[in-house]
C-alpha cells in the first residue's frame, strides 16, 4: 500500500525537551540492531513474537534462574551481555527494574521498556520509586513504567508479550497509548489500519507524549501520530511538539479518556496523570489542529484516513446505494457531519436518467435500484456522471454478505467497488465505501480496496463523522499550513483588585466601561442635589470581591440624598458582613439601559493549560445556561468571533424574534481588550471576570469587572 502524499510546510519548529543523546537512544529503540530481554513469563511471549514476525537482529536473554527461554540460552547477568543493546525489555519487578536501569545506563544501552507497575500510580511510596527510576535512567529512552511494551511493524523489533496481527506495509500510523490494554485492542483491530509503531507509554516517567511526537515527526515510516491519552503532563511542550508534527505534514489524532468525572478519577489512579478539564483540552486541540475522536472506532477510522486516504477538497458529497433506506441514513449522517449533498444538474439528471431503469429517480443520494446490483458496466458511467458534478468526493453505502451466505455472494459487491474505483479515477475525485454494519467488510476485501484506492469505512455513522473531521482538518491545514506558535501563557497567584481600579486598568487596554467616579463619603455629600439621571453606587475595597452579597451595591439613585443614605447603609452592612472592612471609597456610575444581551468575559490561570479566556452568556444566565467557550491565550479576532457565534445564546445577539442585531465588532474588540490585558500581565495575573458585558446594537459596556493577581 502506498500512503497518500500530504505535502508538509517547509518551515521547522524547535523540538521538545529531548536531549540529543536521548533522541538518539529513542531512535535506537525503534530501529534496534540487538534486543535484550530480562525476566521470565513476559519474555517468553516477546521471544515468540520476535521469531514469528521475523526479527533479523541479535537477541540476548538474561535470567539467572533458567538455562534457556524459548530456545534462547540465558545469560546470568547484564554484565555478561556482549554488546550495549539498542533495546531492552525489563519484565521484572519495580525494585529490580531500578537496579537494572543503573547497570544498563553504565553499559550504554539505548532504549528500555519498563514493564513493572508500582511507581507513581501508587501514591507517595510509588512516587519515591518513580524518582529513583528517573535518576537511574540517565540519557536512556525509557518507556513506562507500568506499560505493556512496543510493537514495531517497521523492522519487527517488537517487545510485546502477547500476540498481534502481522502487517506487511512497514509504514503507517504510530500510536502512543497510556493504556497497555487499549494498545492491545488497537493491535487486534479489524479495520485495515496501517501501523508503523504501537507504543504503550504507561506512566511517562521519562518519555512523555511530547517526546514521542517530536521524534516520530521525523520518522519516514510514520504517516500520522495517534494518541490514546488520559492527560498531558506538560501542555507547552505538548503543543510545541504538535506544531512540529504539523510542520512535518504528520496529522495528530487524539482519543482521550477521563472526560467524565468518574473517568477522570479512574485516569488519575491509573497513571497519576492530570485528566479532566474537557473544554480546555478541546480548545488546545482546536488551536493545534489536532483531530479528536470520541470513540476507539472513530480513532481507528481517522488513523486510516490520515494514513491511506486521498485528500478531500470540500464538504460537498455524492452518495449512492441500491436502497432508499441506506440513502436516507447516508443523507442524515452526512448532513449531521456538516456535508451538503448538491442535487445533480439538469444535464447530469438527463445523462443518469438515460442509464437507469424507468422507475428510478435521479437524486443525491442516488438510489441506483436493486435491479442494477453488481452491474459494473452500467454502474461505472452512472457513478462517473455523479462525480463529475459540483461535488468533492463520493461514497457508496454497501455491506458485504456474511461469509456463510456462500462463496460467490460477494462477487456483486466487488463488481460495484470496481465501478466506484473506475468512477473515482475518471473524475479525479476521492471515493469511499461505507458499510452500515461496522463488521461487514471482510479483511481480504478491505485490503484489496485500500490497494486500489477505495478507502473502506466501517459503520456509516462513524464514516460520516470521521470524514467530516478529516475534511475540516484538511481545510484548516490549507488555510494555515503552519499553526502559529502561540503557546499557553503561564501566570502566578493572587490578590483581589477592586472594581474601580480593575475597570481603569482594563479601559486602558480598550474595554468600554461606564463614565464613573471614585469618591469618598465626604465627596458624596458635596454632589449636586439632582444628579441628572439614575446612578449606581458600589463599595470599593480590595478585600470585597463580591459586593452584592455584602450589601455593597445600590441601584437607581437620582439625588444626593439617595446617594449619601445608600453609602451610610452600605458602611453598616459591609462592616457587619466583615468587621475587618470599613468602607472609605465608593464608585458612582450612571445606570445602563436594558441591553439586547449580557455576556461574560473571563480569563483564568489553569495550572496545566496556562491562561484560559472564557466567553459566554453573562448575568444570571452564567450558571443557568452554562453557555461558554474557552480559548487559550493568546487569541485571534477570528477565534473570538467563532467562539461567539458558537454560543447557544448567540441568537440573542442575532436578531432573536425580531429584536435588533448586535454588531459583532464591538464585542470582539472588548474581548480582545481583556485578552490584551491578560497577555500584558501574564506573569502576575490569576483571574479576570467581566460580568456582565452589556451588549447593545452598536456598542458594548462592561458594568462590572474583577481582577485577581499575585
Automatic annotation (TrEMBL):
GO-annotated biological processes:
tricarboxylic acid cycle
Q: Name one Pfam family in it.
A: CoA_binding_2
Segments crossing the lipid bilayer: none
> SUPFAM superfamilies under this entry?
Glutathione synthetase ATP-binding domain-like, NAD(P)-binding Rossmann-fold domains, Succinyl-CoA synthetase domains
**Ribonucleoprotein as a keyword?**
no
InterPro entries reported in the protein's UniProt record: ATP_grasp_subdomain_1, CoA-bd, NAD(P)-bd_dom_sf, Succ_CoA_lig_flav_dom, Succinyl-CoA_synth-like
Which stretches are annotated as coiled coil? none
- A Gene Ontology molecular-function term? ATP binding
- Boundaries of each CoA-binding domain copy? 29-119
UniProt keywords (A-Z) are: Tricarboxylic acid cycle
Q: What PANTHER family has UniProt attached to this entry?
A: BLL6376 PROTEIN (PTHR42793:SF4), COA BINDING DOMAIN CONTAINING PROTEIN (PTHR42793)
What name does UniProt use for this protein?
A: Acyl-CoA synthetase
Whose protein is this, by species? Paracoccus aminophilus JCM 7686
